[in-house]
From TrEMBL:
Family: Belongs to the peptidase M16 family.
Domain Peptidase M16 N-terminal: 20-167
Top-level taxon of the source organism: Bacteria
SUPFAM superfamilies referenced in this protein's UniProt entry, alphabetically: LuxS/MPP-like metallohydrolase
Record's protein name: Insulinase family protein
The Peptidase M16 C-terminal domain, residue ranges: 174-349
């Protein structure tokens, strides 16, 4: 049970133009964070605009009619705020962390960027070079490279498989006019969520959002959807040969989409399988067999698809063994009931992590934005913790049998030689 006497207060307001404002009020905190999320990203891009969402993310910091790029940076700096942004397959998120007392000023700068960014021609050309260097950097980093390749392979034929950064060809060719056209047709009111966490006033932020975001075009972006009956690509292995000391690999299993009825059971499952030093993967792959320095599992969840992914980096001569062991640990859940002490420890790890995260406004502003988008409303922390506490050992085994029994995962790797194959 959730035992805090003062759980954070969540509020959601939908403005007349369709913009949603969600807040998590945490009294007594000095810091706060505010974000603007657009539910449009790579799955909304056309073949000639691959990477446009991420490119625009960079360019929103490069000037508006009333602020130059330097002025944006200087204004954030002068009030002690820290601003950033990221692009995922389904969203672009712009956010800033500052003292709670100056969140309205911070929001004013962020909203000006979001609504009025002019994408200056000279900045487009300079930032084009930066994005091309980012693509090259990801190619040179083995773990980033194989993550990106795996994501495209696992979701091949699905809009989620589109590379976030685009390609050197699309980024080199896309014009400022095409970028602006993409922004104006996707940065729309019904896809915009303002989220704020900390010692903040919801009504003040909602009033400010109505004023600052009132010029956004109305409507909802048109996102590409997978074909009817689409299934992620499993039971296949791909290896990219490179002269390296290690072999890095990802393995992937299909999951139900975000917000599914099993999500709390899967959170417990993933905690036991591959989250932290007490996980089964860490103990078996690293501690007992010395196969890898880094090994973990993670879940990637989207509106219409999701996957459980396992990562490890190991010596090429033992890569197949590592793949086999990781798969065996997944299947172990189908046959064995987790013990009471293992189950209790996993739940406590999740509970403590989520409660401690309440002290991090940046984490919370992302969380309430994500749950509002994926679930339709922000998920109260007490509700999620009660659901985690209610998960039983029987349910963990049942969900494992339902989702992983007889499933052959997809395996993609990079390293010397021929690489590992599918698990044996």
């Amino acid at each position: 049970m959730f035992t805090s006497s003062t759980p954070p207060k969540l509020r959601l307001t939908t403005l007349p133009n369709g913009v949603r404002v969600v807040s998590q009020q945490i009294p007594g905190m000095q810091s706060a964070a505010i974000g603007i999320r657009i539910d449009s990203s790579t799955r909304n891009e056309q073949p000639d605009t691959g990477g446009a969402s991420h490119f625009i993310e960079h360019l929103l910091f490069k000037g508006t009619p009333t602020r130059t790029a330097d002025q944006i940076t200087d204004e954030f700096n002068s009030i002690g705020a820290r601003a950033n942004a990221y692009t995922s397959q389904e969203e672009v998120f712009y956010y800033a962390v500052s003292l709670a007392s100056i969140i309205p000023v911070t929001f004013d700068i962020l909203a000006d960027m979001f609504v009025h960014s002019s994408l200056p021609e000279e900045e487009v050309e300079k930032e084009r070079g930066v994005v091309l260097q980012e693509i090259l950097m990801n190619q040179d980093n083995p773990s980033r490279f194989i993550y990106n390749q795996f994501h495209q392979g696992f979701w091949q034929g699905h809009p989620l498989g589109t590379p976030i950064l685009g390609t050197a060809e699309t980024i080199s060719a896309i014009s400022r006019e095409r970028l602006m056209e993409h922004k104006l047709s996707n940065y729309l009111t019904n896809a915009t969520i303002v989220s704020v966490a900390g010692n903040v006033d919801h009504d003040q932020i909602a009033e400010q959002a109505a004023r600052l975001l009132g010029e956004l075009p109305t409507g909802t972006p048109t996102g590409k959807k997978a074909t009817s009956g689409y299934q992620v690509a499993i039971g296949q292995h791909v290896h990219y040969t490179r002269p390296m000391e290690q072999t890095h690999f990802y393995m992937g299993y299909p999951l139900p989409p975000a917000g599914n009825e099993h999500r709390h059971k899967l959170a417990v499952f993933n905690q036991i399988l591959g989250s932290g030093m007490n996980s089964r993967l860490f103990r078996e792959v690293r501690e007992r067999r010395s196969l890898a320095y880094t090994v973990y599992s993670m879940m990637s969840s989207y509106t219409d698809s999701a996957g459980l992914m396992i990562y490890a980096g190991t010596g090429p001569e033992r890569a197949q063994e590592a793949v086999d062991v990781c798969h065996a640990e997944v299947l172990r859940f189908c046959d064995e009931m987790v013990t009471d002490d293992v189950l209790a420890a996993a739940k406590e790890q999740i509970r403590c992590a989520r409660l401690m995260a309440l002290d991090d406004c940046e984490t919370q502003v992302r969380r309430i934005s994500n749950t509002t988008s994926l679930l339709g409303a922000p998920e109260p922390i007490e509700s999620s913790l009660e659901a985690i506490a209610a998960v039983s050992a029987d349910e963990v085994r049942e969900v494992a049998q339902l989702l992983f029994k007889d499933v052959v995962p997809r395996v993609e790797s990079v390293g010397p030689g021929e690489g590992p194959g599918l698990p044996r």
